[in-house]
Write a structure and sequence with these properties.
Number of strands: 5
Helix content: 40-55%
Order of helices and strands: EHEEHEHHEHHHHH
Shape: globular
């Protein structure tokens, strides 16, 4: 959002990092989520290395858009944000360039994301959730159609997507499909246990944790 606040040293540290590491194209950092009164609600420690970022980027955005620095050449090669993906156009862009560039998050807090009740991020949260699921679904559909992943892997990824974005029934359904498309064996028992017994408890705990951590009342908003 336009009113987020960076630490005074952010731009210089990110510039120096890109200057000293020519193989890195996008650099971000850890950040604080703070209230309108300035109280720190939570410190978000994003994955640091390129490999760690790319693994988690398959489920959620791991770059703070308002606190990143990116090489001009990336936009020249791969285009700009697609505005009809609002309010998740940054995530769509990062997924499009994911296999083509390298990322890094400086492991220190260099940015502050202000959580306002009427901020674009909060007002558009329901739409952002829906657009994000669409973006990820399209991404994994492309991987499946290009034979980069198998059908059971696609089902598992879709289950994880709906787990992250708070759709428990859909998530459990995809986990079961992933299990049934494999040969039943002891190694797959964990999927069965997770989707049937552990997932509801984990899901409930996660919802309560999100409420407490960010001070948002998401429980009845979907």
């Amino acid at each position: 959002d336009h009113d987020d606040v960076s630490e005074n040293s952010r731009l210089l540290k990110q510039y120096h990092y890109l200057r000293d590491h020519e193989d890195i194209d996008v650099v971000s950092s850890w950040y604080n989520i703070i209230s309108e009164s300035g109280r720190i609600l939570h410190t978000v420690k994003l994955p640091v290395t390129d490999l760690e970022i790319k693994k988690k980027m398959l489920y959620e955005c791991c770059v703070i858009n308002s606190g990143m620095m990116i090489r001009k050449s990336v936009f020249e090669k791969y285009g700009l944000f697609i505005q009809n993906k609002f309010p998740a156009q940054d995530y769509d862009f990062f997924l499009r360039i994911l296999p083509k560039v390298k990322f890094y998050n400086i492991p220190e807090v260099l940015h502050n994301w202000i959580s306002r009740e009427m901020s674009p991020s909060n007002v558009a949260y329901a739409r952002q959730r829906g657009v994000t699921i669409e973006i990820l679904t399209d991404y994994f559909n492309d991987l499946l159609s290009n034979s980069q992943i198998k059908k059971d892997e696609w089902c598992f990824f879709m289950g994880r997507i709906h787990y992250y974005y708070n759709s428990p029934s859909k998530s459990i359904g995809y986990f079961w499909k992933a299990l049934l498309k494999r040969n039943i064996s002891l190694i797959n028992l964990k999927y069965l246990l997770f989707s049937t017994f552990l997932f509801p408890a984990i899901f409930l705990y996660r919802r309560i944790l999100v409420d407490r951590r960010y001070g948002k009342k998401y429980w009845f908003s979907f």
